[in-house]
Amino acid sequence: MMDARRRKMTILMAISGGGAPQGSLLVPGRLFPPMVLTRAQASGAMSTGIASNGVRRDAYSADVPRFNETAQRLLLEGARTNLIRNPWGEGLVIGAPGTLPTNWSSSTTAGGITRSVVGYETINGVSCVLIRFAGTSTSGAFVVLFEPAAQIAATVGQVYALSAVMRITNAGTPPAEMRMLLREVPSNTDYSYVVVPGASNLSRVTAMHTVTDAANTSIRPGFSLAHTSGQAIETTIAVSFAQCELAAFASSPILPAVGTPAASTRGADLVSATLASLGVGASGACTVIGTAMLPQAAPSGASQIVLHIDNGSDTNRIMVRNSPGSANIVLTRTAAGVGADSLSQAITPGTPFRWGITVDGAGNALLSVDGAAPLTVTGAPTSGLTTLRVGSNSGGSANMFGEVAGLRVLPFVVSAAELQRLVAEQAL
């Protein structure tokens, strides 16, 4: 018995990266070998994340892990493209009216309100464009658009997410409403918007729109000031990191290289290690314990994978995932292309949860979520498994679009009771 325990301890120390907790591959703020993260970003595009102070937004080069917000969980997202070419707001000219940033547009005066360009200001580490609006309204709304009419092609049924970091920066006389706005063009009559809160701090606001009119061929993102006739307006708007994605929800801001405005693509965050480097055999016999947070339910028709153990394909695998169109965690196995799911356990989007699996290498696997009684699958692959992945499948899709704060791999099987204990004791 003691020899077996010493052997386990030796293996754990070998894969723990020196001073890391035994068996740990990920802790807040640090990813340990042999786990490797890659993330493609062409033409100098930058990914972003929220700094440890919970406010500042930092830009990241390709293949650099992003540890997000005060919890310092590892941010893992799928591939997305920001269709707004100038989210930095480059190219403005200060003045009354001045010139808006490159590709941005608006009237200089509309409905009795006059627009002027104040310049840039860094607010909580974020460089923002400041635009002032003043006057007495005679009618309508004042609209600022981030792209010209034909730039972002759109077809019926497509779903777009528009987001930006915004705030009203002074205590003047604000408009009745400020809105994030997505318009279909050329009609301009089909649109969606969300009201921007009148907070004194920067906030990221997201508006969603589904294209509904077959006669419209493009979509225009922007924001507007809604006001009533006779209303006096004097307010300055700060805006940064404008982003428009062809997607069911917004992801973190994607930025082009400074000085080269262009639509910018962030590749998927891919995190993996070979089973051999973790001391795990081709049967997959091991125990994996972790914590995660999914900000949103899975979209319709798409899983969010938390853990994926596979043979280099999706035909033989064991995975922990959030089921499509839900917030329900399940354990899934696929053997020779045929899949089966365990029962599910609900989680709350935006709330961290604990999870763990143990795989016996003989076709059986258990999953515990937050220390609850394990869910089971049988008929899992028992040979040929090669790779452990976090946040995606073997092809780099079915991405979790969430965060992971802890990950431990133990190259041995534990009992159902021990699995529950290991999961329940994880710090969130």
Question: Would you mind describing this structure in some detail?
Answer:
The protein has 428 residues and is mainly beta. It folds into two domains: 2-79 and 268-424, Jelly Rolls (Sandwich); 109-266, Jelly Rolls (Sandwich), CATH 2.60.120. The chain is built from two helices and 31 strands. The protein has helices at 2-15, 416-424; strands at residues 24-27, 30-31, 36-38, 46-50, 57-60, 67-68, 73-76, 80-82, 109-110, 113-123, 126-136, 141-145, 159-168, 177-185, 191-195, 203-210, 218-226, 232-246, 254-255, 264-266, 270-274, 286-293, 304-310, 317-322, 328-335, 338-346, 353-359, 365-369, 375-377, 387-390, 402-410. Strands 1, 2, 6, 7, 22, 27, 28, 29 and 31 form a nine-stranded antiparallel sheet that branches. A seven-stranded antiparallel sheet has the order 3-21-30-23-24-25-26, with no helix packed on it. A hairpin with a 2-residue loop joins strand 1 (24-27) and strand 2. It is elongated. The protein starts with a helix and ends with a helix. The model is unreliable at 1-7 and 9-19 (pLDDT under 50).
